[in-house]
Every structure is written in C-alpha cells, then in structure tokens.
Amino acid sequence: MIKKITLLLTLCFAFTQIGTAQTLLSEGFEGATFPPAGWTSFIGTNGLGTANDWIQTDGASNTGTYSAANVYENVTGGIAEDWLVTSQIDLTSASNTELLFYAAQSYGTNYGSIYEVKVSTASQTAHADFTTVASYTEPALGAGGFNLKTIDLSAYDGMMIYIAFVHLNDDGDNWLLDDIEVRSPLSLDAQIESVNLNRYSLQSVDNQLSIRVKNNGTTAFTSLEVNWNDGTTDHVSTISVNIAPNNTAVVSHPMMVNYGAIEEKDINITVNLVNGVSDDDSSNNSIISKFNTISQAGTKAVLIEESTGTWCGWCPRGTIGLDYMSSTYPNTVVAIAVHNGDPMTVTAYDTGLVNTIGTGWPNSGLDRKLLGVDPGQATLQGGYNTQINELTPVDLFAGATQAGNTLTIDANATFYTNFGNASSDYKLGVIITEDNVTGTTSGYNHTNYYSGGSSGPMGGYENLPDPVPAAQMVYNHVGRALLGGFDGQSNSLPASINAGDTASYSFNYTIPATSNQANMHIVVVLIDATDGSIVSAQQSSVAQALSVEEVSGISTIKIYPNPAKDNLNISFEAGNGDYDITVTDLLGRSVINKTYTGVFGFQNIQLPVSNLNAGHYVLNINDGNASYSSKFIVNK
C-alpha cells in the first residue's frame, strides 16, 4: 500500500513541558544512547515486527531535538508488537503517582494502530507480567502534533515498577514519544509555560500581557496573584481562574504594558500566590519577556524560506506556494527557495534551515518564528497574515559597488528603538538569491508526484511528466549565498543603538560566471541572536543596490520627509529646463513616471506617494545630462 510520504512527518506545534515536582523518572531522549540507560526494547511473542524497532529520531520532538519513534510495519499473519520499556522506577515512598508523556503520530488518516501503556511489578522483559493501564486508538491519541497524556499510577504507590509503551499495528501509523515523566505531584504547583506580549510597540499604546499557566498539582486553581515587573515597578493583580489539575489556561493581566517614551525593558512575570497561598514549587513560576517601544514602525516584509529539492516529488507544492506569495505580495514578501541534495544546494543554508524548521521536504519557516509550515498556498497565506502584522523597529536597505564580478554590499539599517546590547543581541546578514535558474544535467530534472492529476491540481505540474525534464524547468527564488552565515555576522552592529541611529556593515560577494547578475537579488536581514528569529528583511535587485548619486548639473537636492506617507517633497536648484522623475520599487519595476518641462531655478516638487504600498523605493531625477538616485521609504 502506497500511502506514506515520509516516515516521520515534521510536526508543527506549540512547545510545552511537564513540571518537575517530585520527579521519579524523566526522559526526553536527548542522550547519546538509545534506548536510554536501563531501558530496553523488544518485539511481541508472535515474533512479528522485526524490521522497525524503536529508535531515536530528530524528525519531530515536543521539546529539544529528539524523540523516541516506532515506524509502522506491513506484516503478514498477525499484528506487529514493538515494546519500549523503562528502567525500574521506585515508587516505595511515592503518593498519588502519575505518568505524563507527549505522544504524536504522523498521518491524519486512521490506519488502525493501537497504542498501549503497560505496567509490570515483576519483570522488565516478560510479556505476561505486564498489565495494560491505558490504550489509545489513532483518533484517541490525537492529531496536530504532540499531545499530553496523563495516566493515574496511584494503584502502584509503594511498589517498584516498569512501564512499557507498546505499538501494535499492521501497516498502521508511526508512534512518537517525548518528555516522559513519572512524578508524585504537589498539592499546589503552577507552572508558567509561555508568555504572549508584543515584542515591539509604538509609544503610548496599550499592550496586553498574557501567560499560559499549567496546573501541575492535585488541587484546582481558583485564583492566581500575578506580578509583572519592568525592573522598576511592580504590577500586581489577583486574577480569578478555573484550572483543573493537569490542565492549562491563558491568563491575561489586567494592567497593560504601556510606555510614553522610547524604552527597552525586560518584563519579569511571576505567579506569587496560588489560591491565596504560596506555591509548593516556586522554581517554575517566573518567565522573562523582552519589550521595546519604537518611535515609528519600520517597513515590514515577511521572510519565507522554503526547504526544497529537485529529488522531492511533493516539492512542486512549495514551488507553487512560494511563487503565489511573492507575486501576490511583491513588496511585503521575501521568498527564498533553499535547496537540498541537488546542484543548487548551498550546504550551510540547507543545514541551518533544517536545524531551525526541522526535517521534511517540502517545508518552510516564516521569519524563523513560524516553523515547520507546509509551504502550500493556504498555509503560507495564513502564516503571512500572522507575521505581516508584527511591528519592526528598523528599516533596512542595501547599497553596493562593483569591481569586475565582485560586489561590495553595504547592509544599512536605521533604528527606531534603543538596544543596549546591540552587538551581542543582533546581527546583520545578507542572502543572495537568483531567479530564472536552469541547468542541463539530470540533477535539474524535477521529480513530480503530481503528474497525471491523481493528487489533484498543482499549478500545472499535474500536466507535466514525472520527472519533469531539466529542459522544462526554471527555478526561481534560489538561495545562492549566505554572507555572514545563517545566524548573521558577528559584531556587525555597534555595542549599543539609540533610536534614530544608523548602522552599516560591508560584505563582499563574487558573482559566479554561471549566474546572471540581472536575475539576482540582495536580501538584507536583521537577526535577533537571542532566539535566531528574523527582526526584519528587505530585498532589492543588484541593479537597484548599485544605484549611485551623480550630482553634476543637479544641485542641492533634498527629499523629505523620509519615510513618507502621503507626499514626498523634492527640492533642488534646477540647472536645465526638462526633468524626468521616476520611482521604482526594489525589484526594478517602475511605479511613478513624471516629466517636468520648462523648469528653472529653485524647485519644490510634491510627489504623491499615498497610492504606493509600504516599502522601499528608489527615486531617480534625470535632466538628460546627469542623474540623481536616492532610496526612500513609504510608511502606512
């Protein structure tokens, strides 16, 4: 039966983690040995299921890098049984013991797997000594990533036990396990799992602060006293809640985060009291969130990085999705196809992206914040709708000079907030991309599982053969080079930044003889080194970056305001009678063309820009003898 695309599907989910109160066993499968020390694995008594044992995988995890996984098997004459058994667990002094673990499967269709949890008080390896304490069908296990499962083991308090995870299937689904914990919970134990607060905000704007709280204890929560502190002032509130044991809830603080000046703050959020008394475990009650106010919003574009490869038969879905996003949002999407295992591969880029968004092809990430996103049109649109609304504290643009085939690229940044540790917390980088890439070798043939249309329409790929011959393939948005590395260039910014400051860092790039400069683009990125996310990204063609000022014959030119919203003022001393003024976007497309004739002396021309999308543009003034070019920004 042909139905599985990959053995282990990269899963997209919210990271959570179990509390640590009186932990008797904790295993996240991050060690170098598998099964972990003291654990064991084996098959059932019928001898079936010998091909795929339990393994450690980096294909998907709840937290960290690895999980335990058992891949389905197609067997004859019965059901495959694959057992993963813990080391011996001492419950002799425990009370109210419970087992918590995160489980996932790979496919949405129900293929009939059964997932069992068993306990033995006698032997680690004798099948008959184990008693089933929980059993899940595929629908019961849940979809959409890793799901928390909790099992009451209080019947085994005072004993020594082993726990077995048993996967029963015949051509079923995969079973993935992570963050297994056996614990004796406390009465009151609140854990802050995450915080939701805008990273950047305009001045004098209310920002809601919310925390996701898990009840790790045995007593229901009815109230939480929550404080957020910005290093100066406490903001304490008692908030009514209803959180049952082993459940989570989002709790919103009634006091808004709002500053009237440019500020850089570390917001420390703490649960002080639970049900009016101290928490039994205060080690997991606090979390810190960074927050900056900005003087104005920079121009926002969403960076979409897609993992692809010509060998990947489902990757046409990502090609169509990426093309749709870049053509629909040419000024607010920066699209990059990061190739794997084919002639267009840039190893450092491929490795960096896989380590960030996970394995699986096609795959994608948006701003390196939304990770493991299927690069189909609908899911990319949903991710874009989320990311485009984020404020950015900087405007970026590229300038360049050229000597032969070598570019010196200046990554320029204008900041609208303060960063006290700019050089360590933020990095500039440059990515080179190329459109209209073709090749003649077999590595440019594209495997095409959409051929014939049995998997539905896919932008015309359903009408193409499998594989699509290289002669019929043209590749766009191809990532060609990382300047400064995947994580950005160290020490590319000064030690500190204040609102209004500008910074620049120069990179060198030699254009290969096999590339076409006219099809190449320069992407400037600002990376938050504390979490690896993209703060801002802007793209320009090489030709636009090479724009230079030539002021002979056109004197004292000023353009303002910059950024502009409704009108751009151009003042200059005219030395000739006829002037052509053009505005192009950073892809080189003309968006404004004006001709002014019979113009002499001092001029102040008001150029309407309200109909332009927010973004970076290039203004060019030409009198037939000399020209002036300058970049400007339109903000909305």
N→C terminal distance: 54 Å
Overall strand count: 39
Please identify the structural class as seen in this structure: mainly beta
Helix amount: under 10%
User: What is the average per-residue confidence, as pLDDT, rounded to a whole number?
Assistant: 91
Residue fraction in strands: 35-45%
Low-confidence stretches: 1-20, 548-553
Cα Rg: 29 Å
**What overall form do the CA principal axes indicate?**
globular
Main sheet properties:
6 strands, antiparallel
Number of helices: 6
Q: Overview of this structure, please?
A:
With 636 residues, the chain is mainly beta. The chain is 7% helix and 42% strand. The chain has six helices and 39 strands. Strands 1, 3, 4, 7, 10 and 12 form a six-stranded antiparallel β-sheet that branches.
In short:
This protein is mainly beta and about 625 residues long.
Mind sketching the topology for me?
Elements: E1 23-27, E2 40-43, E3 55-57, E4 67-70, E5 80-85, E6 89-90, E7 98-104, E8 114-120, E9 131-137, H1 138-141, E10 147-152, E11 160-169, E12 175-183, E13 190-196, E14 200-202, E15 210-215, E16 221-229, E17 234-243, E18 248-252, E19 264-274, E20 277-278, E21 286-294, E22 302-308, H2 316-328, E23 333-339, H3 347-357, E24 363-366, E25 370-371, H4 377-387, E26 394-403, E27 406-415, H5 422-425, E28 426-434, E29 478-483, E30 502-510, E31 520-528, E32 533-541, H6 542-545, E33 555-560, E34 567-574, E35 579-585, E36 590-596, E37 601-608, E38 615-622, E39 627-634
Parallel strand pairs: 14-21, 22-23
Antiparallel strand pairs: 1-12, 2-5, 3-4, 4-12, 5-11, 6-11, 7-10, 7-12, 8-9, 8-11, 13-15, 15-18, 16-17, 16-19, 19-20, 19-21, 22-24, 24-25, 26-27, 27-30, 28-29, 28-31, 31-32, 33-34, 34-37, 35-36, 35-38, 38-39
